[in-house]
Amino acid sequence: MAQHTRDEVVNSMPRTGFFGHPKGLFTLMLTEFWERFSYYGMKAILLFYLYYSVNKGGFGLDEGFAMQIVSIYGALIYMSGVIGGWLADRFIGTRKAILYGAILIMIGHILFSLPNNFTLLLIALLFIILGTGLLKPNISTNVGELYEKNDPKVDAAFTLFVMSINMGALISPLLVGWLQDNVGFHYGFAVAAIGMFFGLIVFMLRSKQTLGLSGLDVPNPVTEADKKKTITITGIVIAAFLLYFLVTGLMGKLSLESFMNFVTVLGMALPFYYFITMIVSKKTTKDEKARVFAYVPLFLASVTFWSIQEQGSTVLAHFADKNTQLNIGILTNNAIDFKIPAAWFQSLNPLFIVTLAPIFAWLWVKLGRFNPPTVIKFSIALFLAAMSYLVMVYPLTHNGDQLMNPGWLILSYLLVTMAELCLSPTGLSVTTKLAPQAYTSQMMSVWFLANTVAQLVNSKLVLYYEAVENHQYFNNIGLVTLGIAVVLLLVSPFMKKFMRGIH
């Protein structure tokens, strides 16, 4: 199969037209906007859908178990990116992966919008998991393919791309949350399905004319010699899953909880398998291997950060619903008669990102040669993430049994958002820069596996959240994160040597 050079790909598309960036960036931003609109809209009400009583339109599950399900769902979303990255690298390329993924996601949201039982809900989640696994890592990889390897515009491009993600994430919880509160859950889910439909149409209409050759190549195609090995490995994996379900079923231990434990073990092992594969591969050069080693501490730091950030849809969502004063009338002496939908707090993170992303993008450019290197940005992110939990300790220790003023929760979201702006665009960019040439999409999948591991950690942390007082939880998690930030700062000089000129 013929492969195009980086120069051929870059020169095959319109180079300007969107704030000095290739037009293809706007196509990918629009597609990602609608995909994230559907994802975050659904996720904003998923937890409530699981634990609200049946007479309120929910399933009436135990609150802790519901939070575990949402965490495992989030983990599977990003774990499936490994499959999506592998398929793109070895078989179909990123362009087709994005298209097929959008179709599967739309089907999942349509199933959600229908009156359903718990089995149909799990099937809908499966479609969304598989579709997101195809779309999410590969659309980010496609952004990187629009530029030369060391183009200084790459960081700014990923900042704009992340802003489009958060525009979708900002709008959808407001609309979906209002519909859930005032009309019903399924109307909210229907809006998410419509959003994904728009994303699919945008990509189909604009990709050919704006993306050129990007995403069409298969970077590491399966050779005839590899096909037998690939089929064998795939068969073993499928057989292992079937054996697991058969054995646990016969033992009477097949349950959603046992499956979550199985996923946890698998998810923890996957990133390290990929690191080892890239390091020992003959297709990876000496410099590329050194860069993979340098990437490992960044991966662990991102796991720590995403663990706190992703608790916005579990621990903080539950806290907003159960422990936060949502009645504006009480806060304003009845001057304003309004109850805040709990799902609206899910819009705070993207609201702050949309507001602050241009400022951060300007700041990194303005700093010039004083722009902090990647490792320092990661350390700053962990410090801010730690503070986002530590600020919750004071009001919780002084409020007694009273519901907490929502201002403290807003401050917490603000701090973790500032952390995200230091880490997320930088992480996406450094992943494309440190990726071995033969593992571009799979390296991006590893980046998203950090989120997988984080949410697997969260599936256990929610049990700790239920076992201790709220102030203890936020204090202890905050202090641990602060300690990791200091360690990363101390090892940064050693990591710089392994990055081989990438900063």
UniProtKB/TrEMBL annotation:
PROSITE patterns reported in the protein's UniProt record: MFS, PTR2_1, PTR2_2
Pfam annotation, one family: PTR2
Highest taxon in the source lineage: Bacteria
Major facilitator superfamily (MFS) profile domain: residues covered: 1-211
CDD domains given in the database record: MFS_DtpA_like
Membrane topology: Multi-pass membrane protein
Subcellular location: Cell membrane; Membrane
Gene Ontology MF terms in the entry: dipeptide transmembrane transporter activity; peptide:proton symporter activity; tripeptide transmembrane transporter activity
GO annotations of cellular component type: plasma membrane
Membrane-spanning intervals of the chain: 37-54, 66-88, 97-112, 118-135, 156-179, 185-205, 230-247, 259-280, 292-309, 343-363, 375-396, 408-432, 477-495
Keywords tagged on the record: Cell membrane, Membrane, Transmembrane, Transmembrane helix, Transport
GO terms of biological process kind: tripeptide transmembrane transport
PANTHER family found in the cross-reference section: PROTON-DEPENDENT OLIGOPEPTIDE FAMILY TRANSPORT PROTEIN, RESISTANCE PROTEIN MDTM, PUTATIVE-RELATED-RELATED
Family: Belongs to the major facilitator superfamily. Proton-dependent oligopeptide transporter (POT/PTR) (TC 2.A.17) family.
Protein name (record): Peptide MFS transporter
Lineage start: Bacteria, Bacillati, Bacillota, Bacilli, Bacillales
